[in-house]
Amino acid sequence: MSRLAWRIFLTIFLTLLATGLGAIVITSWYLEQRSSRSAMELTAGAESAAKALATGGRLGLTDWARQQAADRDSLLIFLVVDEWGDELLERPIPRRGSAVESNAVESSPAASTAAGSNAEPLLGGSVVTLDLPSNMPILSGVDGQRYLLMTLPRDGRRGVFGLPATRLSLLALALLVTAVASYWLAGSITRPIIDLKRTAEALSSGKLNARVTLASLQRRDELGELAHTFDQMADRLGAALQAKEQLLRDVSHELRSPLTRMRLAAALLRRRADPPPEVDRLELDIARLDELIEDILSISRLQSEPSSLHKETLDLRYLLERIATDADFEAKEKHRRIEWQVGETPCMLSLDPQWAAAAIENVVRNALRYTRPESAVVISLGQNAQEACVTVCDAGPGVPEDQLAQIFEPFYRVERDRGRASGGTGLGLAIAARVLGAHGGRIEARNLPAPSGGLMIRMWWPKHQA
Known about the structure:
five-stranded mixed beta sheet, five-stranded antiparallel beta sheet, 12 strands, 466 residues, Heat Shock Protein 90, Helix Hairpins
């Protein structure tokens, strides 16, 4: 078996062993205490019975027997049997072993001899004698009558749910040992799993330096091996993503030089008396390349230097109103419109105004590009004590469910409805995600239900940094 399986097996086995040994110890202690107390009660009861017989005769002994029967704190039930085999309170006499029945006194002529050999006078010379020690003491009265004291164990005092005290003790022990062992075992298994879950969530949110804790790595079982493997995977993943970012930065910088020469060549062609018509197309492509390179470098800067943001405290409502007003002006030319709801409650946040505006504009322009003609892009603002949420909803074709998380990756383009023919470089949502991450926020995409459909993007901006 594996180490983890052995851990589970030994925990269960040792728990049962500890419970069994504890039950034996408690039972032995309980029986010893009960035996000692029963012997003391027998001696004390026999002496008090002898006194009752000496002072009140048969009636006094009968009253004593009645009082003993009503005493629920006693461990023993006293039965008083006369020489004719009748119990004074007319209670049934159970069989004790194989030799003592209801005629135990009659069939034991040696009882008088035994009584005479161990008889001790009571009450200062009274003729009433008591045969002790014995499991069934014999009382000899003034009139010569003898009475046999028989004892029966009284049922143990009942506790919770009507269980005897000894069973309650065993139940409490079993529950305690099982609870402690189960808690330790559950924690031993779930702690590294929770640690792995938190590390995976941190990695998925962009924290590439997140690693499993040392306590999980030091385990010598399958979970410890899983933690080591997970850390190795995280190292390789981080290295791969860093190499990707570095490649994008290097390529972007290398493209700047030929792009500058192309721009200079286009300018020289433009100065000619009769510039060729291809110059317009060349300048358009140069502008698109320049914009693409700038977007790539922006993503790289946000990914590698989140502290480079220049934050200031501002009201997010005013920023949204400005963005919505500008976007609505452009939307009217495309037979679309912008609707926004920002509320009247101030929403003060600590943001980099330029980057925050760029992130929201990218999301709004993306929604405006794909929403249906004559439809609206709705912008709304909600907030609580911890964060503010900007929601942008369009009425477009939506995104396949399995690609919702991937649309925030650089250059990722959804096939079919959001293909290359629709325009865009595939970096707008990626920049928005990097801006939110640099501010300590998050972004999420979700398809809207039918019949309207469309895509809803939510951006959470934290307030604790304000």
